[in-house]
Amino acid sequence: MAELTIRDHAELEAREETALAFCAFRARESTRRRDLTAEGRQFDYRTAFQRDRDRIVHSRAFRRLKHKTQVYVPHTGDHPRTRLTHTLEVAQIGRTIARALGLNEDLVEAISLAHDIGHTPFGHSGERCLVRILAGKAQDCPLPAELLPEVGTFKHNYQSVRVVDLLEQRYDRPGLNLTDQVREGILKHTAQKPGIVFPLPDPEGLRLGLPCHLEGQVVALADEIAQQTHDLEDGLHAEAVTLESIEGVPAAQAVLLHLGEGYREARRSRRAAMLQRGLIHLFVTDAIQTTARRVNELLAARGIGDHAGWRAVADELPPALVAFSPHVNDLFAELKAFIYRHIINHQDVNRQDFRAHLVIGGLFRAFFSNPLTLPTYALLRFHELTGRRYLRDLPIPQMPEEVRQHYHTEPRFVRLIADHLAGMSDRYALDDFEALYHPGGRV
């Protein structure tokens, strides 16, 4: 007689042993900065990566992604991608690739959901603005030169790790206490550049300077696929490009060869959807086939025969083992160049870019020059970080000297402002700027 049994984490881990490919990362192999036993779990029916996924989805930073720009400002219409919808699309593409290759879908999904969790408002425009400010290159909000070497730069992948390690406050200690494997994948979803100076709260477990596991590499490529194909669709909807111009791109030409007569006979909106689906299919299929071939070539060259053998060479993996074939990589590069030329460099997007620099720069200048304009939680955090008296408790005559001596000379204060700005949604930043700079705005 059939009987329904509860699958606890031990059984789920056992199932991974038989279901996953030899090159997949097992949940039982995961490591974490802090032990979970202190959290008082009575039941354990999730693997480590499932738990990470759930912690990310329930975080405040994840929810704020719905109000952050991808390319087009989301509140100007119902259909442009937001940072959240982009994140969900990365997770979907990543899981498809992972399942086809027998990799750990839970690990891929957790990394995907958190990969942009530290992104600024206004997309990459907001990121570029913070980079300039923290480098001392923004004339409208100059920082003291002596602070610059200690402040560090801004990169959204590093900031995403900072969010999950420090800034989220849902447990007894700061951060979400995610597994090292998810943290590593978040950091490495975009290319690592040597010499980055950034205040990571806990570099341990990130394997800095080493190639990421295959699941992390899957997310990196899924991010690229989702970003380019969906930016293309948003640009078409915004009339920055025409369908006819897209059809002339070599990658689109390759797709049209397979779509045949059915494409030519379809109505215009249907053709646009068919073409976008075809592009995603082209890139995902090629990535799966090319990755499988490259892994098998590595197996043969290194004499690897099982999971233990694979783990033994994990630190020596190529940094982009998950990749396109040379031909499709060329097609993808040409598509990316087309998008940058006609969509990213379009007037509408660049007007958003100008506004982002105006708003982010203006807010940074206000917060740095007068810390009392910061929200209470930020000032309390500075008090906790440094032991300085909570600024609002000081007598008013003492405040200017306190700010001059202990705020404008403190790199942690600059980083606190960067954390606050990076966490803002587009609308929150616009409203705060309006309240500070326009007398008739919201107060």
Please characterize this protein's 3D structure.
The model has no long low-confidence stretch (mean pLDDT 91). This protein has 20 helices and no strands. Helices cover 59% and strands 0% of the residues. Helix 4 (83-101) packs across helix 10 (214-237), helix 5 (105-114) crosses helix 9 (180-187) and helix 12 (250-265) packs across helix 13 (268-302). It is mostly helical and 443 residues long. Among the domains are: 221-345, no CATH class; 348-437, no CATH class. It has helices at residues 9-19, 48-57, 60-64, 83-101, 105-114, 123-134, 148-151, 156-167, 180-187, 214-237, 243-247, 250-265, 268-302, 307-312, 326-344, 347-369, 376-386, 399-406, 411-423, 426-437.
Based on the model shown, name its key terms.
mainly alpha; 443 residues; globular; 20 helices
Q: In terms of structural class, how would the helical and strand content be classed?
A: mainly alpha
H/E element order = HHHHHHHHHHHHHHHHHHHH
How far do the termini sit from each other?
68 Å
Shape: globular
Strand fraction band? under 5%
Q: Which residues sit in consecutive blocks of at least 5 with pLDDT less than 50? A: none
Radius of gyration: 24 Å
**Mean pLDDT, as a whole number?**
91
Based on DSSP secondary structure assignment, what is the total number of beta strands? 0
Largest sheet: none
Helix percent band: 55-70%
* Total of DSSP H or I helical runs spanning 4+ residues: 20
Topology:
Layout: H1 9-19, H2 48-57, H3 60-64, H4 83-101, H5 105-114, H6 123-134, H7 148-151, H8 156-167, H9 180-187, H10 214-237, H11 243-247, H12 250-265, H13 268-302, H14 307-312, H15 326-344, H16 347-369, H17 376-386, H18 399-406, H19 411-423, H20 426-437
